[in-house]
Specification:
It is found in: Membrane. Keywords: Membrane, Repeat, Transmembrane, Transmembrane helix, Transport. It is a multi-pass membrane protein. The protein is mostly helical. The chain has a single domain, classed as Alpha/alpha barrel (Mitochondrial carrier fold). Helices cover about 75% and strands about 0% of the residues. Helix 8 packs across helix 10.
């Protein structure tokens, strides 16, 4: 309201764009080794054959260079949707708005995220001596399986994984922040926001590990064009038959650890960067 007459819509996009970019790069670079270990634990070929503990930073450049547009797009969409719908609903229904905003942000972010994941995970599990660039991996995927089943293979499984994750993480993050503000005269520090994101991220990561496992198996499958059986339900059913409930939660420990630490870095840096931008530039 205080921005009346100052063209709020023309400036409201820049703070989340800037903060999202900084937060995305920070968390991806910091936690990339854990993500590599998680991917190799979930690989069908097994942890050691997929690379073990060697080359844990393989594919980092791909992620680092694409995390900027991915997280910027997510937070710009999230904040814009949240601001548009929050005035229309009562306070008790705010989590529904946060879920809607998160879903819009995730679907748009997946347009960039899925090809990145394809290249990144194949680099993480590649054990050959020949060097493969991300572009080369994606070109090969396109020539082998086409645009939809190659470059964007696993798009639906990624969305199905990320939407439940965001449905849990973002509302929890907002809830924890609200609880802190209620007990602190409406104030919250970036450190407290980071702690809220840490707890929310760990809980969401644990709950969605089976979906993340299915997405990883689909993206790494070599015989997708031949079998057409690489779908979420049959993949999870096959894993359950082979390894039971424990198999469905393969990689849950490094995944929870990554999102616990990552949530702290991601949301803490996001809030700090957003506040810094608004203080000095968004006037």
């Amino acid at each position: 309201m205080e921005n009346k007459g100052k063209q709020p819509h023309s400036k409201s996009y820049f703070a989340p764009l800037f903060a999202g970019a900084v937060a995305g790069v920070s968390v991806d670079v910091t936690l990339y080794p854990l993500d590599t270990l998680k991917t190799r634990l979930q690989s069908q070929q097994g942890f050691h054959k997929a690379g073990g503990f060697s080359g844990v930073y393989r594919g980092l450049l791909t992620v680092a260079t694409t995390s900027i547009p991915t997280t910027s797009l997510f937070f710009m969409s999230y904040e814009t949707t949240k601001k548009a719908f929050e005035p229309m609903v009562k306070t008790q229904y705010a989590p529904l708005v946060h879920m809607l905003a998160a879903s819009v942000g995730e679907v748009l972010a997946c347009i960039i995220r899925v090809p990145t994941e394809i290249a990144k995970q194949r680099k993480q599990t590649y054990t050959g001596s020949e060097k493969r660039s991300s572009i080369r991996i994606l070109v090969h995927a396109f020539h082998t399986d086409g645009f939809r089943n190659g470059v964007y293979r696993g798009f639906l499984s990624t969305v199905v994984r990320d939407l439940p994750f965001s449905f849990i993480e973002l509302p929890l993050w907002e809830l924890f922040k609200s609880l802190i503000k209620d007990r602190n005269d409406g104030q919250i520090t970036s450190f407290q926001s980071g702690l809220s994101g840490s707890v929310a991220g760990a809980l969401a990561a644990a709950a969605t590990t089976p979906l993340d496992l299915a997405k990883t198996r689909i993206m790494l499958a070599d015989d997708y064009a031949a079998t057409r059986k690489v779908r979420i339900r049959p993949v999870l059913a096959d894993i359950y038959l082979q390894a039971g409930l424990r198999g469905l939660f393969a990689g849950v420990a490094p995944r929870m650890t990554a999102f616990m630490v990552g949530g702290f870095v991601f949301f803490g840096v996001y809030d700090y960067s957003k506040n810094l931008f608004e203080k000095y530039f968004d006037r």
